[in-house]
């Protein structure tokens, strides 16, 4: 293709969003606004609760606090812009803002893979190696692993963001998505996209599949240990310690596999756009719900926190 009339330095893109659904723009606006507010509130409450309650000062809840913090910033990368598009009917986004949105979306998404994998290993040690749990998952190790997960996500996004900056856009600047998604940008590209597809494939194998395999192996060992427990009550009690995390991980990987591990011709951009909303918005919303309603320790800590707040009794370690 002749690239003389193309540019990789566009002034702006135009995000289409959900403009195809013109009849329900107001309900969509209210729905996404509600989801965003609930996601922020739910995850923020969970972060405050874990910081507040001494009974939740364990590695599992430390990583959960990191996951909730991640969900807040991850959702905030795309949702405010989408809400503003609904409110103003203006989908313009600058070239720089679009690339930054893509970078942080990939960075925080990659961080989630790392954190979910670490949380799986934490549950493996707790269930399969309980005598060594306090040694293996000590405070210093947890802090180092958490920081490494965040830094790993930031580093993992650099290759794709770098290669994306080399794309040229010729015929259109219309992004048929609700944010600057990598697939939507590739669809607009006028030059050869072999390199970026190769980078995405390699990163998918190295990051996604490696995380998935480690998580799967952890839960195979966990389930094997649970099955060796003789009493049904013992099995249930042990499984309940990792049931919430298993629910979140299952939903996360199922949607990711359907969305990204598929032939490019098997799903239209409109179908992918709708499915991505589950991955980007509803999983971060479900995380605090799943961990709260399926976890007795969290529910008890929440009751104590509300009672303490009503009595103006704030724990000393929280001040």
Description of the molecule:
By secondary structure, this protein is an all-alpha fold. It has one domain: Rhopdopsin 7-helix transmembrane proteins (Up-down Bundle), CATH 1.20.1070. Helix content is 73%, strand content 3%. It is built from ten helices and three strands, in the order E-H-H-E-H-H-H-E-H-H-H-H-H. The chain has helices spanning 25-52, 59-88, 95-128, 133-136, 139-164, 182-188, 194-227, 232-260, 269-293, 296-310; strands at 12-15, 92-94, 174-175. Strands 2-1-3 form a three-stranded mixed sheet. Helix 2 (59-88) crosses helix 9, helix 3 (95-128) runs antiparallel to helix 5 (139-164) and helix 8 (232-260) runs antiparallel to helix 9 (269-293). The longest helix has 34 residues, at 95-128. It is globular. 32% of the residues are buried. The model has no long low-confidence stretch (mean pLDDT 83).
Task: Give the topology.
Layout: E1 12-15, H1 25-52, H2 59-88, E2 92-94, H3 95-128, H4 133-136, H5 139-164, E3 174-175, H6 182-188, H7 194-227, H8 232-260, H9 269-293, H10 296-310
Parallel strand pairs: 1-3
Antiparallel strand pairs: 1-2
Helix pairs in contact: 1-2, 1-9, 2-3, 2-9, 3-5, 3-7, 3-8, 5-7, 7-8, 8-9
Average pLDDT reading: 83
Which CATH C-level class is it? Mainly Alpha
DSSP summary: helix tally: 10
Distance between the termini: 63 Å
**Number of separate domains:** 1
- Give the full name of the CATH homologous superfamily: Rhodopsin 7-helix transmembrane proteins
**Succession of helices and strands:** EHHEHHHEHHHHH
